[in-house]
Amino acid sequence: MSLGSPGNPAQLNAEARWDTFDPVAYVRKNYRTVLPVDAEIMAIVRAHFSDHFRTFPGLRVRGIDVGAGANLYPSFMMLPWCDEITLLDRATPNLHYLEQQLDKHDRGWDAFWRELCRDDAYAALPGGPWERLREVARVERGDLCALVDRQEQWQLGTMFFVAEALSSADEKFREGVECFLRSLKPGAPFAAAFMEHSEGYWVGETPFPTCDVSESDIRGSVEQFAEHLVIYRVGEPGEVRPGYTCMILACGFRRRGSS
């Protein structure tokens, strides 16, 4: 069933059963191996971040992964340049999963790091990602839309498959994108990924909300707060799960100025 289909009442983030979310089942289903779409996303984002920071050798920044959940590769992608990474999530099981990974990680994530190590900035990190991640990562309970009170706090950011999963309501999607981008300092590089035309998803026996958004919806929400924005269509329909058309990856920089 489409959680955001016409005629259904909007399901809000607070109404979703986040504390029943099973991160282990989610990882087993989605990140057991590096899918071609994951490899493509990582290739684009590692180049986006590496090309930017190569012009600022030695620069160390604060990063945030919004809705970190049970996906570690967005934080991996920020790791070479961060002295601190906030792993933000609202679901108790996801927070526990992240804490556990910092203590004793699942070996499956090593394959994602190897993909990133095709770029020297990642390959040069002594000892791989785990020691550094334990040093800089801070797991924090929080809601994306509460970032409205924490504007211009981070110099690097990622948000993967979060804004369209807040709710089946269009206005919550736009609010989520705005809150993420406003949390970044002007000029900060970012990468955000979205499921286009998602019909909702299940983790185990539990359904979770999604908003049906198009590429133009995503572009319109992001571009007013971004500059040098590039939108990529990645992956094939149904490559990860049924019920979406493709993934949309937005890479750019937080707009400087009044927006």
TrEMBL record:
Keywords recorded for this protein, A-Z: Methyltransferase, S-adenosyl-L-methionine, Transferase
Secretion signal span: none
NCBIfam families: SCO2525_fam
Organism of origin: Streptomyces musisoli
Family annotation (InterPro entries): NNMT_TEMT_trans (IPR000940), SAM-dependent_MTases_sf (IPR029063)
Gene Ontology molecular function: any one: methyltransferase activity
GO BP terms, alphabetized: methylation
Species lineage: Bacteria, Bacillati, Actinomycetota, Actinomycetes, Kitasatosporales
Protein known as: Methyltransferase
Record PANTHER family: NICOTINAMIDE N-METHYLTRANSFERASE, NNMT/PNMT/TEMT FAMILY MEMBER
